[in-house]
Specification:
- By secondary structure, the chain is an alpha/beta fold.
- It folds into two domains: 64 residues, no CATH class; 148 residues, Metalloproteases ("zincins"), catalytic domain (Zincin-like, 2-Layer Sandwich), CATH 3.30.2010.
- It has a four-stranded mixed β-sheet with strand order 1-2-4-3, with helices on one face. A four-stranded mixed β-sheet has the order 5-6-8-7, covered by helices on one side. Strands 9-11-10 form a three-stranded mixed β-sheet, covered by helices on one side.
- Helix 3 crosses helix 4.
- The two termini are 23 Å apart.
Length: 238
């Protein structure tokens, strides 16, 4: 990977065995990356980027405006999200295995052993989020496999730094970002549909958009809401 400079912007260039150039802008800083075919020179990439400058700057401005939470420190009554709803954290100590419970519509209750570190509390909460996602995902995948006419061989949940979901088309495997446990269920559903449609169309081209419109006509509404919700300090747009 190397960089080129255009209009005071630094662009990371990655060359791959692909047919077309792909441009991405990543939060939180608006880092720009171009994936280019092996036989494309830097001059052609510069022309491509120049043609997309308005789109790049618009996305960078959107990242700057988006509400972001600071890193969570697991103090009493700290704000945490689950399925799009804001909860206040209550940390309880007990000599028993750790657990997380939703007892009311206002509080997330975390039970930990005395002297559990903040880092360990983060792991405990993340594992609870993972469990909730894994309870929701199978039915959504089953529903949309039938609707779209595709079938995945496997799926998983993991923390990702640049995407809400990924799809390995050759292996028919999808991954869902752990952070989606904090978003409304219909945002999770939108991402699952997005990744399943990649089994029919690899690229975000007109055919891909037409398939999204056909199977989930309201997907743009879900996408807009997903990208407007408060996000943690390390998240991004999709």
């Amino acid at each position: 990977m190397h960089q080129i400079e255009i209009s005071n912007l630094s662009i990371d260039i990655v060359r791959k065995g692909i047919k077309n150039m792909h441009l991405s802008v990543y939060p939180p800083t608006g880092r720009i990356r171009v994936a280019a075919p092996l036989n494309i020179d830097d001059d052609a990439i510069k022309l491509f980027v120049i043609s997309k400058l308005a789109w790049i700057k618009r996305n960078q401005r959107n990242f700057e405006k988006q509400d972001r939470q600071s890193a969570r420190i697991f103090e009493e009554r700290e704000c945490h999200y689950y399925e799009g709803r804001k909860y206040l954290l209550r940390v309880n100590t007990q000599e028993a295995p750790p657990k997380v419970l939703l007892k009311t519509k206002k509080y997330i209750d975390m039970y930990v052993r005395p002297n559990t570190s903040k880092e360990q509390q983060q792991v405990i909460l993340n594992e609870w989020y993972r469990k909730q996602l894994k309870n929701n995902i199978p039915l959504l995948i089953e529903k949309w496999e039938k609707n779209i006419g595709v079938e995945v061989s496997s799926w998983g949940v993991k923390q990702m730094k640049t995407k809400w979901g990924t799809c390995n088309i050759e292996q028919k495997r999808i991954w869902i970002n752990l952070e989606l446990a904090k978003k409304p269920v219909y945002c999770l559903e939108y991402i699952i549909v997005h990744e399943l449609i990649h089994l029919l169309e690899r690229h975000h081209n007109n055919r891909f958009l037409a398939l999204m419109e056909s199977h989930m006509p309201q997907w743009k509404v879900y996408k807009k809401e997903l990208n407007s919700l408060p996000v943690s300090h390390g998240e991004w747009k999709y």
